[in-house]
Backbone:
């Protein structure tokens, strides 16, 4: 990913919510509601209205979802604090410390559009969509092309269920996903050299693979905004940049689109983006990866260790496309 200097819009630490306050925001809201503490002290940006916004998230009762024990990982789960404070989310800044800025994202109401080569265009409100889907928890490895890795208990639903709901027409070959666009709340989107909105795509076969999930939560609760609430893609055999956050549109098409990063730097970011220790990114060796929070550096596994599920998707493509990555 590109790195740029610290943007001027970042909240100064003096007025931002502390990390502990943020991570304990529900407790805080409960206390405010009970009248045991006053909201909006000098070091807090949580106000009763911020708590009211939290309350309107009708999905909280869906968590924690039952864990699907079929997906096991022989690694320690990364502490939630690391997963929620070390992020890539360029809409909120081109650095890792965006979690405070991302709290501006308004996730209710949230309308999702499903269009293109589908039997019938659908516009659906997030809570209606969630009611139709069976949520489950799965622990997956997550690997960024910058050669760091985390292990996360995601909650979500299989992307195959989304395909059933969307009913793509026969000619549809790709699912293109687009993130929200709102320069008022996402200052990164004022950086005109990026081709907003963030866009990614997978083939219909990849979307239908049993590993592909639409993430709605993590660590037994609704997705933190900085991790891509209320909907993000989870395809654990691919690099993190494929795993688009805060999706508002699923568009079915027969043509392979260019993704956000392909438009920015096509020679560095391919369409497939499958984790591969033998194909280096021009700026990061992919031979090993750093497990955040452990101090360990370990060998990278082909398809991030998920070859048994996905290798067959790519038979033939490896030979046809010179840059597989
Ligand atoms: N989605 C959007 N909308 N915007 C982004 O900048 N960054 C991607 C991906 N999804 C990104 C995005 C990258 S580069 C990575 S590594 C992962 O999100 C990081 O996910 P995490 O912050 O939850 O670990």
Residues:
């Amino acid at each position: 990913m590109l790195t740029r200097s610290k943007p001027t819009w970042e909240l100064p630490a003096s007025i931002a919510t502390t990390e502990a306050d943020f991570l304990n925001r529900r407790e805080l809201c409960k206390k405010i509601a009970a009248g045991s503490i006053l909201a909006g002290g000098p070091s807090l940006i949580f106000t009763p209205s911020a708590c009211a916004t939290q309350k309107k998230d009708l999905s909280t009762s869906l968590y924690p979802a039952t864990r699907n024990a079929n997906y096991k990982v022989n690694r320690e789960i990364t502490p939630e604090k690391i997963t929620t404070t070390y992020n890539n989310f360029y809409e909120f800044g081109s650095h890792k410390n965006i979690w405070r800025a991302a709290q501006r994202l308004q996730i209710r109401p949230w309308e999702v559009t499903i269009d293109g080569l589908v039997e019938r265009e659908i516009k659906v409100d997030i809570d209606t969509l969630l009611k139709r889907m069976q949520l489950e928890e799965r622990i997956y490895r997550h690997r960024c092309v910058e050669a760091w890795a985390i292990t996360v208990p995601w909650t979500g639903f299989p992307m195959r269920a989304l395909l059933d709901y969307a009913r793509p027409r026969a000619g549809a070959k790709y699912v293109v996903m687009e993130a929200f666009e709102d320069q008022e709340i996402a200052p990164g989107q004022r950086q005109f050299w990026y081709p907003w909105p963030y866009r990614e795509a997978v083939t219909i076969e990849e979307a239908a693979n049993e590993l592909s999930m639409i993430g709605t939560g993590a660590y037994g609760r609704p997705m933190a905004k900085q991790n891509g609430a209320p909907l993000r893609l989870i395809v654990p055999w691919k690099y993190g940049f494929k795993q688009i956050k805060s999706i508002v549109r699923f568009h079915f098409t027969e043509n392979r689109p260019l993704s956000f990063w392909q438009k920015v730097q096509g020679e560095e970011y391919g369409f497939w983006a499958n984790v591969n220790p033998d194909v280096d990114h021009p700026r990061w060796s992919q031979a090993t990866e750093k497990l955040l929070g452990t101090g360990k550096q370990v060998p990278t596994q082909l398809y991030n260790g998920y070859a048994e599920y996905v290798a067959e998707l790519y038979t033939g493509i490896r030979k046809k496309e010179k840059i597989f990555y």
Summary: Confidence is low (pLDDT under 50) at residues 3-55.
